[in-house]
Amino acid sequence: MQVVFKQEVGLGESQSPSKFRNIVTSTPAQSRREEGARTTGIESQLNESKARLEEQEANFQNLTKEKKEMEKELNNKIQTLQDQLTELRAQNIRFSTQTQYADEKEKILQVITKFVNDVTQPNNIYPCIKGNLDSCKKQLNALEEKNKIYTCTVAKHEQSIAILRGASVFTSFKTS
Fold it and tell me: From its phi and psi, is residue 45 left (phi > 0), alpha (psi between -120 and 50) or beta?
């Protein structure tokens, strides 16, 4: 079997494979200059890569710094807008309360005006009601004054609640 293999490879009986082993398996040696040039090329690539890495790291640091600054600005703007929203809600509550008060007052005045017109009619059969009407007007004025005081107090309390709610939101935002 070895003889057949040697013949296929092209070796005769007199030739031994050990003689050709160095020729077949060895590679030409590179000169020192070529190795030095290759090493220099690799070192220059390494230095370029390091420079690019440092540049990318500097860019990254700048971008993170800018991001933090933008986040601070946005948080400040959000806080300002939340404060404005709180103030606008308090104003809205105040105006809503005043509108409700004015509507109720108008309804009461319409009822009173109708009543007065009915009482002051010459063909009215209830003349004693006029004296009661004056006392009712006084009571109505006193109740209107109390209503104004209560409305102001309610508006102040609602504004205090809105401010405290905003402060609690701000505190919870800071803690989180």
Answer: alpha
The alpha carbon of 98 is separated from its chain's Cα centroid by a whole number of angstroms, namely: 35
Contact 155, 93 (CB under 8 A): yes
In whole angstroms, how far apart are CA 59 and each of 23, 47, 50, 56, 68? 55, 18, 14, 5, 14
DSSP character at residue 148: H
Question: CA-CA distances (angstroms) from residue 3 to 18, 19, 42, 83, 144?
Answer: 15, 17, 49, 100, 130
User: What end-to-end distance do the CA atoms of the chain give, in Å?
Assistant: 84
Task: Please tell me the distance from the alpha carbon of residue 29 to that of residue 153, in angstroms, as a whole number.
Answer: 101
- 79 near 170, Cβ under 8 Å? yes
Q: What is the pTM of this model?
A: 0.37
pLDDT at 134 over 50: yes
pLDDT tens digit sequence for 77-100 = 999 999 999 999 999 999 999 999
Residue 111 belongs to domain spanning? 2-175
Q: Domain total for the chain? A: 1
